[in-house]
Write a structure and sequence with these properties.
343 residues
């Protein structure tokens, strides 16, 4: 581990159209002491050659070509090849602001933090920034017990009791991580082929040993909407995978002896993902009969019912409150109509 060096891991698969944009944003960072690890995850397009070409142009770039195994394992390959004091993971169809590493590294070093969290902007298919989401927390540093008692619940979701939204995102790509923390815990990502939203599940494991988190109230990362996004593709087993993710996260929380509040907050990413899945069902090419049957199966699912019966709906918008009540009381027809209107 080299003090002052930041490892930037870019997992790469089938992103030939966007790869140069991403790598260019990393290469031109104002903080120069970086190593850029391009993990070619068996990409079938022109990405492997592009990676090799970039390595010839910049000595800070190293390329690892590997058999395809998915995003989570590609990030793990990056960890195993990293020499930095800190490490970050960016998706190769997105890009970052020029001062991302400089400001994030400065913040974590100043506070001797295990993790530095920052925000992101969403970018539409035409390259226009549509939303800027920067963290809005009471504190810019969380230490000791406050990490699990206060920061982690807010990282998972907004607070349904008081309506406070911190605009934190529990994602691999909005943070800078201490390599000492990762090595001390032999921490790795789970595969998204095993658990959907693999970064949320994996980060639950990492936070058990986090002593200090620093929050940088700026949006450095640019999350780009495009056709390669896994979240935009419809698959019939999607809800089953979302349910498995939620149940696995609750099991992980129990194993790590996390608080009831941490477990309670997990309901909100679960329901958000489930609603997104229902929207994809509604706009799919299935027949109306099939769509209504699938929506009904989700609404009547035991895990879904257990979750919505425990949720605090007081701070929800009128539309979402009606939707959740229609799920809670198994009013599948109304639920279908509301989802269709939203989609």
């Amino acid at each position: 581990m080299e003090v002052g060096l930041v490892s930037v891991v870019l997992p790469i698969y089938n992103v030939e159209k966007y790869l140069n944009r991403c790598i260019e944003s990393v290469v031109r960072q104002t903080y120069k002491k970086i190593e850029i690890i391009l993990v070619d995850d068996g990409s079938p397009d022109g990405c492997p050659q592009k990676c090799d070409d970039w390595a010839k142009r910049d000595g800070r770039i190293k390329v690892v070509h590997k058999k395809n195994a998915g995003l989570g394992y590609a990030r793990n390959t990056g960890i195993e090849n990293a020499s930095g004091e800190y490490i970050c993971f960016f998706d190769s169809d997105d890009y970052i602001a020029d001062d991302t590493i400089e400001k994030a590294y400065e913040a974590v070093k100043k506070e001797n933090a295990d993790i530095g969290i920052f925000g992101f902007s969403t970018v539409d298919k035409n390259g226009n920034v549509t939303n800027v989401i920067a963290p809005k927390t009471k504190c810019q540093k969380y230490v000791g017990e406050k990490v699990l008692a206060s920061f982690l619940p807010d990282l998972i979701s907004w607070n349904p009791d008081n309506g406070v939204v911190t605009d934190l995102r529990m994602s691999a790509w909005t943070a800078l991580y201490s390599m000492e923390l990762i090595r001390r815990n032999s921490w790795r990502f789970v595969s998204e082929r095993e658990i959907i939203s693999e970064d949320v599940y994996s980060l639950l494991d990492l936070y058990r040993d986090v002593k200090t988190v620093v929050v940088i109230p700026e949006a450095f990362y640019f999350y780009c909407e495009n056709e390669t996004s896994l979240t935009h593709s419809y698959k019939k087993d999607r809800y089953n995978r979302i349910r498995h993710f939620y149940e696995a996260c609750i099991d992980k929380c129990n194993q790590l002896e996390y608080s009831k509040e941490v477990k309670r907050r997990m309901a909100y990413p679960f329901t958000a993902n489930s609603i997104a899945a229902m929207k994809m069902i509604v706009i799919s090419g299935l027949s109306n009969t099939e769509k209504k049957k699938m929506i009904s199966d989700i609404v009547n699912d035991e895990t879904m019912q257990n979750v919505v019966h425990q949720m605090n709906l007081k701070r929800e918008s009128i539309t979402r409150k009606i939707l959740f009540l229609s799920i809670k009381y198994k009013m599948t027809g109304l639920c279908y109509c509301l989802i269709k209107a939203k989609a």
